[in-house]
Write a structure and sequence with these properties.
With 325 residues, this protein is α/β, with parallel strands linked by helices. 30% of the residues lie in helices and 24% in strands. Strand 4 (75-79), helix 3 (90-98) and strand 5 form a beta-alpha-beta unit.
């Protein structure tokens, strides 16, 4: 088995900034109501960019940061719940956009856990020798599946993309990944797909293709499963909570991060937060935050990080990473 490390990161967000008070024109809300409940102050919303556009720009930055050529990439895994098309995959559109024609490309759907799932796929492909260099992307244009008349969801989400380059190495990098799913929670956070309709069946009521969420139950789920997956990750490694420099959680709600920190008796300063600027960008939150931390000089050689995702499915996952970029 080969070692696998992250050698480059990138991110891209639309230029259009929508502050909390701007949403008061759409629903009964205001900055105080949103910020006290979520920690969000503003979010980036597409003014025409689709998911592939965001992903291509994030990929280009990651490739540049890694110091490689696109031709070296032999695998592209893109996590999204908001693809440009049902087919072709958004990953194939990224391949075309960056000219990475030696790569096998496919999308996965694991909602806000998508980047962790995709990271694990790239990790397994490389460590077993099937691939050498992988481009892993989390990208979502949530604004196209939001019900802008629903105060419970429209205040939460934003658009964006983040990427990481994984490569075969002899240095320890990605140490361990834990993932899980529980399909019994399928109705807690979902967005209907293409309406089932054909000439050989009775008419069915068409459901609007927008996001639906049971916020209280999702909060309960996340504050339960996040400590569990972190503890499981560390249980099967040689490290302890005290060894971790940063916990990089999916940026769903600042209150979730605060609750996890309190529950696990971890210094809240160890939880990186950028939700106030971008809101919940679904599969993109973790790679966007990782790229920000890297560019800000917060990550040093051999730092231990725990990345944690959780979301619709229900799905969850975590990764223990030694920073050896």
């Amino acid at each position: 088995m080969y070692e696998v490390r992250i050698i480059g990161t990138g991110s891209f967000l639309p230029q259009q900034i929508i502050k909390n008070d701007s949403l008061s024109d759409l629903v009964d809300t205001n900055d105080e109501w949103i910020s006290t409940r979520t920690g969000i102050k503003e979010r980036r919303i597409s003014s025409g960019e689709n998911t592939s556009d965001l992903a291509i720009e994030a990929a280009k930055e990651a490739i540049k940061d890694a110091g490689i050529n696109a031709e070296e990439i032999d695998l592209i895994v893109l996590a999204t719940s908001t693809p440009d098309f049902i087919m072709p995959s958004t990953a194939c559109l990224v391949q075309k956009g960056i000219k990475a024609y030696n790569a096998t490309c496919f999308d996965i759907t694991a909602a806000c856990t998508g980047f962790i799932y995709a990271l694990n796929i790239g990790y397994q492909f490389i460590r077993t020798g099937q691939s050498k260099t992988a481009l892993i992307i989390g990208a979502d244009t949530n604004s196209k599946i939001i019900d802008w008349s629903d105060r419970n969801t429209c205040v939460l989400f934003g658009d964006g993309a983040g990427a990481a380059i994984l490569q075969r190495t002899d240095k320890e990098g990605i140490i361990l990944v834990d993932t899980g799913s529980d399909g019994r929670g399928d109705e807690l956070l979902f967005c209907p797909g293409v309406h089932l309709k054909n000439p050989f069946m009775e008419e069915q009521e068409e459901k609007k293709q927008v996001m639906h969420m049971n916020g209280k139950e999702v909060f309960r789920f996340s504050t339960t499963v996040v400590p569990q997956t972190i503890e499981k990750l560390l249980q099967y490694s040689s490290y302890h909570i005290e060894d971790i420099k940063y916990f990089l959680l999916h940026q769903a709600n600042a209150r979730i991060m605060e609750a996890v920190a309190k529950k696990m008796n971890i210094d809240p300063e160890k939880f990186y937060k950028n939700i106030h600027k971008y809101g919940n960008t679904s599969a993109a939150t973790i790679p966007i935050a990782l790229n920000e931390m890297d560019k800000a000089g917060l990550l040093e050689k051999d730092d231990l990080l725990v990345l944690v995702g959780f979301g619709g499915g229900l799905t969850w996952g975590s990764a223990l990473v030694k920073w050896n970029k």
